[in-house]
Amino acid sequence: MTTAQSASLAECLPEAQVDDKMAVALSDVLAETYRLESKTHAYHWNVDAVAFFAISKLTEEQYDNMFEAADTLAARIQALGYDAPPRRHDGHDLVEVHAKNTLTTQDMMADLAAGHERLCDLLSDLTRLANDQFDIATGDIALDRIAFHKQAAWMLREIATA
């Protein structure tokens, strides 16, 4: 789709409908960010490896980053005129709890890498929507988050396959 076609499409949509789609997409990213942040925190507590300290520091940096990102995402939702989050997400399934020692450190790191990759997919969809709607602010947020999650997935995959 050309830029001119996107512009004419955006002009045809009521502004409220555009904002609704953006707020819902941001809300989905926010919910998945909370889910992965919580899982990262839980795995951080249960790392059992020779490289415990390094993995512990890495996961701490990652969950701190995601916690701060949640504020940025929520603020963007509010800037669009919605309460954050604009729709309720059921929080009881944020983290699947495993019995002690059912997951190895490598399994946990692979699981977290997959979570970061899922967020990259959601953020890529958000970027496309933002570009289609000429929402530069949301697009910038999404691109920044993609960079973080791609690097995090790469680091975690390296640990998982070590």
End-to-end C-alpha gap: 43 Å
Strand content: under 5%
The sequence of SSEs as H and E is HHHHH
Level-1 CATH class name: Mainly Alpha
> Looking at CATH, which topology would you report?
Ferritin
- The overall pLDDT, averaged over residues, is 84
The CATH superfamily turns out to be Ferritin, core subunit, four-helix bundle
The secondary-structure class comes to: mainly alpha
Query: What is the tally of beta strands?
Result: 0
Named CATH architecture: Up-down Bundle
Structural write-up:
The protein has helices at 3-12, 15-45, 52-79, 105-132, 136-160. It has 162 residues and is an all-alpha fold. The protein has a single domain, classed as Ferritin, core subunit, four-helix bundle (Ferritin), CATH 1.20.1260.10. α4 (105-132) runs antiparallel to α5. Mean pLDDT is 84; it is low at 1-14 and 90-94.
What's the gist of this structure?
With 162 residues, the protein is mostly helical.
